[in-house]
Amino acid sequence: MTGRPVISATGLFTPVESITNEELVASFNEYVKRHNEAHAEAIAAGEMEPLQESSVEFIEKASGIKARHVMAKEPVLDPDIMAPRWPERSNEELSILAEIGVKAARDALARAGRDPKDVDAVLCAASNMERAYPAMAIEIQQALGIDGFGFDMNVACSSATFGIQTAADYIRSGNARSVLVVSPEITSGHLNWRDRDSHFIFGDVATAVLVEDAAIAPAVHWDILGTRLKTVFSNNIRNNFGFLNRANPGSEGSADKLFVQEGRKVFKEVVPMVAEMIVSEAGRLGLDPHALRRLWLHQANAGMNRLIAHRVLGHEANADESPTVLDTYGNTSSAGSIIAFHLHNEDLAPGDTGLICSFGAGYSAGTVFVRKAA
Ligand code: COA
């Protein structure tokens, strides 16, 4: 038996706490001041370069980000810590990643009117997994009371679209009828809050997408017209943290075990790759890219999205055609395009066609063309 995959509903969990650029820069510049004072002699002797201050104006102009939500604001802003902290949880407690994933999943299930007992699988598709195993997906499955299977998958910022295609393939093959794709992104744990070039980029959030067979979906849903995935190896976005490299002398806690990128190169290389991929996939599906009603793009940089949307739509996109959530959420890795879709899809009319698109480390990119069902 084969099915026809649709998006029945999406869910969102937004952490209560938020950090403005002003708060972030004040904390960063205090760290810079203390660091330069502590090394004043070495700097004066020319043995060390002083650290440079960050600026609110640069951050907003370069990225479009004005604020970001986080799971633990105080330690992130404390110049002596500059990393998230929370009490360690016992194995009997729900882990923090599963906790926010469950919140987003419950939101999606409620919107679809779906009983967890009728869900067949949970994919935890995210960039920053909390541990190696057991899979967070199985923990989320257990917490929701789902009888079926779950596993974790990580394709960095493209995890959610890769998860949607995987779920859609289960529906198409008849291996499942209802699949939850959950993307809990506690990006604050892998961001180097002491790195001037990237300290402003990320925010925390969790999203969920319920992918189902049209035969059981609620009346209001989005047909999945087609999905396409692409990966091309690049060292321009990396995070070397892992279980095999922790023992190397001097490596633990060093900056390359956190997020690092060549932002300029990423910008230049990813924009044409993604724009081309979208246009060619639209062609394969017999869709006119200029006629797409809305683009829900990955939320990494406002300038990147402007360029991609222009190349796809053939004109400068307005906020209605290519909504941004970057300003209040920052880059939320795989969750970004899903937040944009979640917050900006209800006003569209039956028959409207749009695109959910992600791109990021790997490089990786995924497209999900959708049409609102009547
Ligand atoms: N405050 C003030 N100035 C800063 C700064 C900060 N926090 N960080 C960098 N600068 C300075 C640099 O020193 C540089 O100065 P110079 O011209 O005197 O050398 C200047 O600003 C430009 O820096 P650059 O890093 O080239 O900025 P950019 O315009 O490329 O913007 C990004 C940086 C990261 C916002 C942008 O490249 C980007 O978003 N790229 C895509 C990233 C992406 O999609 N990543 C995927 C992650 S999943």
TrEMBL record:
What Gene3D superfamilies does its record include?
3.40.47.10
Could you tell me the Gene Ontology terms of the biological process aspect for this record? fatty acid biosynthetic process; secondary metabolite biosynthetic process
MF terms from GO for this chain are: 3-oxoacyl-[acyl-carrier-protein] synthase activity
Sequence ranges assigned to domain Beta-ketoacyl-[acyl-carrier-protein] synthase III C-terminal in this UniProt record: 285-371
Q: Does the keyword Metal-binding apply?
A: no
Please name the InterPro entries in this protein's record: ACP_syn_III_C (IPR013747), ACP_syn_III_N (IPR013751), Thiolase-like (IPR016039)
Please list the residue ranges annotated as the Beta-ketoacyl-[acyl-carrier-protein] synthase III N-terminal domain. 151-229
Keyword Repeat assigned to the entry: answer is no
Keywords of this protein's UniProt record, alphabetized? Acyltransferase, Transferase
Q: Which NCBIfam families match?
A: PRK07515.1
Name of the protein in question: Beta-ketoacyl-ACP synthase III
Species assigned in the record: Erythrobacter mangrovi
